Amino acid sequence: MQVSVENVDKLERKLTVKFPAERLETQVASRIAEMGRTVRLKGFRPGKVPVTVIRQRFGAQVRGEVLSDLIGSTLREAVEQEKLRPIANPAVDTTGAPENGEIAYTATFEVMPEFPEIDVANLEVTRQKAEVSDADIDKMIETLRLQRRHFDEVERVSQEGDFVLFDYAATTSEARFQAEGLERGGSVLGSGNLFKEMDEALTGHAAGDSFKASISFPENFRNAELAGKSADVEFVIVKVQQQVLPEVDAEFIQLFGIADGDLETFRKEVRGNLERELKAALLARLKSSVAESLANAYEIDVPKAMVASEAREMALQSVPRGQEPAPELIEQATVFAHKRVQAGLLIGEIARKQQLTLDRARVAEQLAAIASTYEEPERVIEVYNSDPQLMSGLQSRVMEDQVAEWVADHAKTSEVTLSFDEIMRPAGS
């Protein structure tokens, strides 16, 4: 077998491999002979199908399969021989036809970059800390009550927390919307579903009230014809309903799987859930701090394919499920994707150099935490255990967590104590 390597780009390699055509012909003949003992064809007894017939019927298929197998095995040999570390499956090009007694193919792929010596001792990392308080538990229980509230119609004027059903039409300097009649809307006042001015206009009115108000619609208002414009709005209140929250009694508690309806058991369950969420959020923030510090400290070449894949994944998070992101959205994500891939490669190199091994107990713990959010946890665990790709992704995340903690233990790490709400609040909010 002959192997040559061409550096196409900083990380792109073109591997040319040649092997004797005799290897292909020998294996094709062997596989066809093996088929002769097992193949069943109409008009022939089992095991008595002539080789010429098998070659005529299946020769092209067998040749393709054997060629694919040979390319796979020789490529692995060539990559190992040249000490290359491909980051993805290569693009292979070949005619498959012998030339001068040899079959040649090319394999083009990107390789792992060269890494500098990574010394984390001088990295500045922030480790955030927080605890779940009784007030956090109270707040979560209130949220659970809100999720199970119902609304009763009332004859009084509306106030914050009420659901108001209303008809309206808005007239700007350009036109009236609706052009004819009224549009119906509804919202819980103070919930954030409507903007502040609309909430204020709807507050203090009872069912049957008709009135007008001057309102400035926000730039992001869902109706593009009103967004960013001032309008005179006419309203008709259809009905007002007050929210009714369930009591935190045994019946309410039993909705959450606490069979005896005991309040203390319920609070412990809520605390446990919040602590699991908090632990995951703190670890995510630590990992982000470590990744940013590493990416800023060590500049490395990053495989284009990995950046493109990461940018697409980031863009997908901004579009509805099943929809492809626009090219400009992917382009916008590319800078951030580059940083993320760079940090991920550095984290992987630290794991390799420090010989950090995957903590199987943590994998099981993470899997149990994921499964606990579904109605059939056992089924989720079964799916992960039977899907190598899902399990590999989970294991990679756990290893990244372990590396982040290792770096934080060996870097210049400062600790910052925050509240549960501050940790759980989305970035930028």
Mass-distribution shape:
elongated
What is the second-level CATH architecture of the largest domain? Answer: Orthogonal Bundle
Question: The CATH topology of the largest domain, please?
Answer: Trigger factor, domain 2
Low-confidence segments: none
Question: What is the assigned CATH homologous superfamily of the largest domain?
Answer: Trigger factor, C-terminal domain
What radius of gyration results from the CA coordinates? 32 Å
Mean pLDDT: 92
Count of structural domains: 3
Overview of this structure, please?
The model has no long low-confidence stretch (mean pLDDT 92). This protein has twelve helices and twelve strands. The radius of gyration is 32 Å and the shape is elongated. It is α+β, with helices and mostly antiparallel strands. It has three domains: 109 residues, Alpha-Beta Plaits (2-Layer Sandwich), CATH 3.30.70.1050; 183 residues, Trigger factor, C-terminal domain (Trigger factor, domain 2); 95 residues, Roll (Chitinase A, domain 3), CATH 3.10.50.
Brief summary:
Helix content is 46%, strand content 19%.
Task: Jot down its keywords.
429 residues, alpha+beta, Alpha-Beta Plaits, Trigger factor, domain 2, Chitinase A, domain 3, six-stranded antiparallel beta sheet, four-stranded antiparallel beta sheet, 12 helices, 19% strand, elongated
Q: What is the topological layout?
A:
Layout: E1 2-7, E2 12-20, H1 21-36, H2 51-81, E3 91-93, E4 102-110, E5 124-129, H3 134-147, E6 150-154, E7 163-171, E8 176-177, E9 183-188, H4 196-202, E10 210-216, E11 230-244, H5 250-254, H6 263-297, H7 304-316, H8 327-353, H9 360-371, H10 377-386, H11 388-410, E12 412-417, H12 420-424
Helix pairs in contact: 1-2, 3-6, 6-8, 6-11, 7-8, 8-11, 9-10, 10-11
